[in-house]
C-alpha cells in the first residue's frame, strides 16, 4: 500500500500510518532496556513529538529555524525530529564522531538555536564550544544527571534535560495543539526539511539542503522498486541517523510503510541484537558484510578437516544453485537435493546468527565488492545495493529484489534521469531512466550525473558552490565515475581519487583496493601513485589476524612507532599482496608497501564519518614514508 501522495511531507508520514495502517497502540519503536526490549507505540511517539513542538513554540522557535541533533540512534532522535519537523523547523543532524571544531563550525554555519545531545561524552564536547556559538540558546542532554558535568563551567545557553523538556511540553501542549496541527498542514513539500553536512574529504563541510519532497519522493520510489517491504517488517537500525542513507532507507521508509524500528545498542553488540530482535530487513555498509564473510570462512575452514570440506562443498553447491536460478533455469532434482542438504548443514547456521528472518539487506555508503555479494547470494541471503550521495537524498539507483547483477548498484529509480558524461569532452555517453531499462545495455565510462526529484535544493549559504555542481540544465555532477552494465549502474571510483601514473595510465584506486581487501590479513589499504612510475600502498593489517598469527599483546599496538618494521609481519602481508596482484593489470599492482601499526581513523582526521579516505590529508601526513617507498629498489612482485 502506497500512502504517499503529492501532498505528503515528513511529519505527515506517521499520521498516515495511524490513520490507515495501524492503531495508535501498535508498537513502532523498540529499544533495549536492561535485559529486555521495550516496545514504544505510535501513540507515545506522537504524544512526545507534540510535547516537543509545544516546548519549541513556547520558547519562540519558528518555521525555518534550525535545531541540531548530536545523538546516537534512539527513540529520542525520532521524537525530536518529528517535533521540530511538524512546526516547520529544520533538522541539523551532526555526526557524533566529529571533532569539537567541526561541530562548532556546523552549529555556527547553520545558526542552530537548540541542540539535542546524546551522552555525557558528547555533552562535554558541547560544553567546551557552546560559548563560541552565539545563536545556540538551548542544550538538551538526553540523560538526567547532566548537572555534575556543568560544575565550574559558565554557559551562555540554557540547559534542560530531555525528560524535563517533555514534562514542560506536555504541560503546555493543549494550548498549542491547534497551532501545531495548522503548521503541520501548512508545510510545503518545497520547504527545507534537513541540513546534512557533507563529510568534507576535500574542504570545509557544506550543508546540503534537502526538502520534504526530496525525502518523500525518494522513499516513494524506493518502495516501488522494492515492493516486498511490508507493514509487518522489522528493521534493525545501527548505521547513524545523522547520515542520509539510514535516515531515508530505514527511518523514513518505516514511517511511510508502518514497519517497526529496533535500535541496536552499539556496533559491538550488533550480533547479539540481531539474534534478539530477529530483524527482517537491515541497512548495512560493505565493511560489515566483509567482516561477516571473513568470519564465516575463518570459523569454517581454519582447522581444516571434514568441517572445512563440508563448508567448501556447500559453497560450491550454493554457487551452482544461484547461477542456475539467475540464468532463468530451474535447478535440477539432484541440485535441489544437494542444496537442501547444504542449507541444513551450513547455510541455516550462518543465517541463524542474523536472527533467521532476514528477507534482505541493503548495502550502501560504498561499492560492495562483487565477491562479497556473490558469497551472500550463495548462502541464499539477498543483498540489495543502492547508490547515491547526500546531495541526492540519497538514492539514485537500487537493486531490484528479483534481479541480482553483482558488482553493480542497481536500476535507476523512477522519476529521474541518470547520465554518463565523458569527463574530457563533456559529451553524453548515455542517459537512462527507469523506463528505458535494457538488461543488455553496456556503455562506456564517464562521470555520473543526475537530474530529477532526488537532487538537493542546494548548499546552505553557498550559492557559488551550488552552481559548481548543478549546471544550468539542472544536472547534478556527482564526481563519481561509472557506466551502465547489463542495464544497471556500476560505480568505478571518484574523479578526485583517480591516479594517473607517470606513463599516462588511469588507475582507479577503489577497485584495486577492493582486490587486495579480499585478504583476511588486511583491514585497510591506501593506494599511492599519482604522477609516479608505479603504485605503492600504506596497509593497515587486521589486528585480530595479527594477534592470532603472531601472538601479539595489546602493548604492540600502543607503541609510538606508526609503522611496523618486523620482517616476518611484512613478509606475511606481502604473501597476500603478491597472490592478489595476479588478478590485476601490471600497472595496477603494488610494487612497495608500508605496514601501518593501527588503522586510519576518524579521530585522526584521516577518514570521514562514512569511512572514505581523505586522500590529501593522508598523503601529506605520511609524505616521508611515501617518498621512502619510491626510493626502494626491490619490489613485491
Task: Give a summary of the structure in a few sentences.
The chain is an alpha/beta fold and 637 residues long.
Task: Provide an overview of this structure.
This is AMP-binding protein. Residues 31-460 form the AMP-dependent synthetase/ligase domain. This protein is α/β, with parallel strands linked by helices and 637 residues long. The chain has three domains: 10-187 and 236-267, Rossmann fold (3-Layer(aba) Sandwich), CATH 3.40.50.12780; 284-356 and 358-494, Rossmann fold (3-Layer(aba) Sandwich), CATH 3.40.50; 498-629, GMP Synthetase, Chain A, domain 3, CATH 3.30.300.30. The protein contains 20 helices and 28 strands. Strand 5 (114-117), helix 5 and strand 6 (138-141) form a beta-alpha-beta unit.
